[in-house]
Amino acid sequence: MTATTTLHALAADYWEFRLREYPVLAHDIGDKRYRRELFHESIADFQRRDAKNGGFLERLSAIDLQDLSPADGITHQLLAREIGEDREHYAFASHLRPVLFPVSPEGMVAHAMQKTVIRDLADAECFLERLRTLSDYFAHQQERLLAGVAAGYRLPRAVYARVCASVSAYCEGPVDAHACYRPLAVAAARDPQGFAGIQAAGLKLMEERVLPAFRRWLDALRAYEPNCRDSVGISEEPEGANYYAFLARHFTTTKLTPAEIHAIGLDEVARITAAMEAVAAEAGYAGNLAGMRDYVAGDPQFVATSKDALRERLQILSKRIERRIPEFFGRIPRMTYGIESIPEALSAQLPPAYAQPNPPSGLTAGVFWVTSLPARCPVTMHVPITMHEAWPGHLMHIALLQEMTELPAFRRYGLGNYTAYIEGWAMYCEQLGYDFGLYDNPFARFGQYDMEIWRAVRLVVDSGLHAMKWTRAEAIRYMATYVTLPQEAIEAEIDRYIGWPGQALGYKLGELKVRELRKRAEQRLGPAMDLRALHDRFSDCGPVTLDLLDEHIEAWISAAEPRAA
């Protein structure tokens, strides 16, 4: 076999392995072989995966890079990174270090169920079989929690109440409205007679197996409380400093150290603050940026009157944005999306909005989820958050990536390993609001800067908490100085960074790279620079590291330069 065929065979084997190990991924792409399963997350599962990854790396190292095409060279590089970092995660015992907020086991279940479409009785039977696995799933979560305690890895007490509140929300309310029952309820509403029998079986399963599994998980967490640690930084745990440095590399896809990231964050906060001061002066608050913040935070005109009014405003805004998309993008996805309100019981624990991409199978549309607490999503935030989460941000970008059938499957669907690329693009899209003409007054521009400085602050507080021994109070105070959010929202954000170390670092660093590359193209190509073509180029590489994105755009610029001369 040639190096090329060997690489392609390895990539295919690796992808098949991932589908088998992560059934939800298989469900998403429409592979029905594992549709009676949900998660494999016991300690033994992680051990097995690490051993298998070791074998993949051995096979990969035997392939001579000189015999590969440039495109296959990128595949080799990304495959080596992905498998290698999986092994580093295992070496650092990531599976024993509890991350229960803002991502959580019960949230992952709900997310998987929300994407499920039941078309016939066979689908429904498999759906119920997946529900029956939840008892083992939560038991394995508890097993890993307790093993983590024995190894010195403990949940920060700062996020403990939020963790319990999240689980509690799934233990309450009517059974037929539960996230785990909703797909069957939708199917039954479509065909009441055809699904009547299995609907009754589903309700019985919810009462007798599913809800008790959630409640046992909640009981386990309540019993865990004495094991919580009072420190907030991951560096306080065994190998914590080295682990955080690894997480910084993983989430940013760079080699930047936490100290370097912290310094970049401070510089960005200073730069954006200066821009906000100019906008404040334009709005009549010269030398009084704090006064403008107080006005925006306190005046009721900047808050929708209800969750329904908020959702409707964003629906109208989304249609305004979509009308302009063809002016700035040549490639437009086939998949659509909708806008829904986050349930009120969960809104206090979740960000103001988030994107739920459509599954690659195309069985359901994407969803732009918006808080049910309007004060957490003020009017000044509407344009940037819609550009970020919906189109042309996450929901459009990810739908385009899923259509790239020419890429190996692990690249086409491996978005989770490229936070800086995915989130950096979405942050850049917020600034496209200027090109779209949506920031047409100082308060709208203030909102864009407020969102941007929020992500710059993340670089400072995340690294401060986990590498520089900041306290929770110090992080809250720093963020409150620069970001116009209610105090409870700021506290929830800081707890997010405490609970999920490093993840928040990718956003701003990715955005800085995308902006740098657009500026480079504009400077070198001048009036000949085609913004639509550049935007298409940002997506046609598939998910990549920031250095590979740089190489990809640089090649496009270099090829266009002779025509621009």
Please describe what this structure looks like.
- This protein is an all-alpha fold and 565 residues long.
- The chain has 2 domains: 231 residues, no CATH class; 268 residues, no CATH class.
- Helices cover 65% and strands 2% of the residues.
- The chain has a 3-stranded mixed β-sheet with strand order 1-3-2.
- Helix 14 packs across helix 16.
- The radius of gyration is 24 Å and the shape is globular.
What characteristics describe this protein?
three-stranded mixed sheet, 565 residues, 3 strands, globular, mainly alpha, 2 domains
Give a short summary of the structure.
With 565 residues, the protein is mainly alpha-helical.
Helices and strands in order, then pairings?
Layout: H1 3-21, H2 23-28, H3 43-61, H4 70-91, H5 105-114, H6 121-132, H7 134-151, H8 157-169, H9 182-190, H10 196-224, H11 240-252, H12 258-282, H13 289-298, H14 307-328, E1 337-341, H15 344-347, E2 353-356, E3 366-370, H16 382-389, H17 394-402, H18 409-412, H19 419-435, H20 442-467, H21 472-482, H22 487-499, H23 506-525, H24 531-539, H25 546-564
Parallel strand pairs: 1-3
Antiparallel strand pairs: 2-3
Helix pairs in contact: 1-3, 3-4, 6-10, 7-10, 8-10, 12-20, 14-16, 16-19, 16-20, 19-23, 20-21, 21-22, 23-25
